[in-house]
Amino acid sequence: MLDLKFIRENPDLVRKAIEQKGGALDLDELLALDREITELKRRTEALQAERNANARAAAKAAPAERAALIEKGKQIAQQLAELEPQLRKLEARLKNLLYLTPTIPWEGAPVGPDDSFNVETRVHGKPRTFLFEPLDHVELINRNGWGELERIAKISGSRSYALKGDLMLYEQALLRFALDQLVESGFTPISVPAYAREEVFYGHGQFPKAREDVYKIEGEDMYLAGTSEVLLNYLHAGEILPEAELPKAYAGVSTCFRSEAGSAGKDVRGLMRVHQFNKVEQYVLCRAELEESNRWFELMLSNSERILQALELPYRVIEVSTGDMGLGKYRQVDLETWVPSENRYRETHSCSALLDWQARRASLRYRGEDGKVRYAYTLNNTALATPRILVMLLENHQNEDGTVSVPEALRPYFGKERLEPTR
Ligand SMILES: Nc1ncnc2c1ncn2[C@@H]1O[C@H](COS(=O)(=O)NC(=O)[C@@H](N)CO)[C@@H](O)[C@H]1O
Known about the structure:
Elements: H1 4-9, H2 11-20, H3 27-60, H4 63-99, E1 119-124, H5 137-144, E2 147-148, H6 150-156, E3 162-163, H7 165-184, E4 188-191, E5 195-196, H8 198-204, E6 223-224, H9 229-232, E7 240-242, E8 248-257, E9 276-286, H10 290-310, E10 315-319, H11 322-325, E11 331-339, E12 344-353, H12 357-362, E13 365-367, E14 373-375, E15 377-386, H13 388-396, E16 404-405, H14 411-414, E17 418-419
Parallel strand pairs: 4-8, 7-13
Antiparallel strand pairs: 1-10, 2-3, 5-6, 8-9, 9-15, 10-11, 11-12, 12-15, 13-14, 16-17
The protein binds 5'-O-(N-(L-seryl)-sulfamoyl)adenosine.
5'-O-(N-(L-seryl)-sulfamoyl)adenosine binds next to strand 9, strand 12 and strand 15.
């Protein structure tokens, strides 16, 4: 959500951003509504001034004039009573339109309507050449008894899974490894619920546009979050933090739920795209300064690259286009990791800077050293999400005998050099 003053002073910048992000907002409607509200406020203030002056005059008036003045006061009060609800209705409409305003994307973002305009900026490592016919992750799981996919489908339906034996232990080791990486990087570990009230999703930006991605709890104002970012973004909602307490850097751990309503037919097999998954998340709330945001953006991205390098996985860095990054983003860089069975890279990490777009929605503010209260800036990035990363780990590190090697950095966490079949 953008600052109304900024929109008034930079309508062409905002119009261009709406276009580049494929937004649906009619900026002229928003500006017209804004002018109407300003006019209505002016009239209301004039009437209130008149009512006060009239009341003072009535108090001092001689009895003969008083009745007329009191009658006049009643008429003014009646006019005010009619204006107030009109003003509230217009302000509610304006707020809904403001929710749809886009953050101006950074000048380096590829301009285009969708992910086909995303740009590969760097590649790390190279896909392995197998000296034997490699198996895909589902075959590896089934051959080694590392999971229950069919049985769970009967219990929980499609896009569900159970991990078993060494693979289950490996997932836990990976999550702890990623968490430790963030704690070493100065992030505060925090585990958060997987559910939150509706206003929290508005504060994040998930609502109003993408409600279909979110599961709702029947009969309650409670929704399941697709990422701990939703809750972490609301942790300090409504507060005015002292600048000395910034930045807030959280390593969020949560179970994530997504309906994947828009993904019918995509990745229906195995662990790539499921309804419930685990994620270690980087979330930062910092001072409203671009170089501070850029610094955190680079740091969060390097945390994730370091994790992928420790996992000895080939990946590439993607600069996301204006049409693919979504309304609130100033900049988004994804990491895509190699999937041998698909012979292509697939997204495993998504790093975003949103300037004050989320802060305005969730009322995240701080008092600067200069005493001035400002909206903060927010950023987020994946540190590690399982089970998707298991697809890449199983397939890239598989051995001819069907076992899977554990990267050096994970051995202290997993306790063995390879995953073995469940007896
Ligand atoms: N349905 C899903 N199944 C499995 N993994 C998923 C699913 N949806 C997302 N992920 C994983 O979660 C990562 C982050 O998801 S994201 O929507 O791109 N971004 C966020 O959630 C941000 N909060 C940064 O983590 C993805 O890169 C992917 O690795």
